[in-house]
Design brief:
This protein has helices spanning 32-43, 83-93, 126-135, 156-160, 166-189, 191-198, and strands at 13-17, 49-50, 56-62, 69-75, 100-106, 114-118, 141-146. It is α/β, with parallel strands linked by helices.
């Protein structure tokens, strides 16, 4: 299967910030994908609106001019159910999975670190597991924001569903903006150049 590299065409692309809906989860590590989506929506000069599917909020537009058309989305379901709404959006807009970018937290890289890649497994991430199950493939792009491993004997589930430390909170806006920049770079400059710039 030929991989469609961002920057080679003008879309459309689906960019999905993964997280859990509602104020209870807003500040959790697991919701950093939502934070990046919020920054991207601001850059697109629009607000999220409910999609007719009822299971996601979307913004449509462009992140750069010239640049591809983009559907920016936040699923309105829990993380482990993300695949259904994403599959529905891909079908509605006629977008192939290789034009999907998932933005999510990542346990296996340190806080403040970004990794951008195409394809792979789910690495225990419930959102990615749901996407791969619903789409029948893992061949989509990922912008991964490091949150690090939980300290001591803290359970992973408790760690991802907890707030950042005070020190992390002060640095988080920088990581979120960098991730938003990485999404724009991925869609306009392609994977290799984006990895060279952001895979620190």
């Amino acid at each position: 299967m030929a991989v469609q590299t961002p920057g080679d065409d003008h879309g459309p692309w689906l960019v999905v910030g993964l997280g859990n809906p509602g104020p209870r989860y807003a500040d959790h590590r697991h919701n950093v994908g939502y934070r990046v989506a919020d920054v991207l929506a601001e850059r697109m000069g629009s607000r999220f609106r409910s999609h007719k599917s009822g299971r996601a909020d979307v913004v449509e537009g462009r992140l750069a001019v010239p640049g591809p058309r983009v559907v920016l989305a936040r699923p309105r379901c829990y993380m482990n159910e993300s695949g259904g709404p994403v599959k529905a959006l891909l079908a509605f807009y006629g977008i192939a999975p290789d034009h999907l970018v998932a933005v999510h937290d990542e346990l296996d890289i340190g806080f403040g670190t970004l990794r951008i890649k195409f394809g792979g497994g789910d690495n225990g991430h419930n959102g990615l597991r749901s996407l791969r199950s619903s789409l029948g493939t893992g061949d989509f792009y990922r912008v991964r924001l490091g949150i690090g491993r939980p300290p001591g004997r803290t359970e992973v589930s408790d760690f991802v569903l907890s707030r950042y430390s005070a020190a992390e909170t002060s640095l988080l806006p920088v990581q979120v903006v960098d991730a938003a920049d990485a999404v724009v770079s991925l869609l306009t400059d392609g994977l290799e150049r984006t990895q060279q710039r952001f895979n620190t």
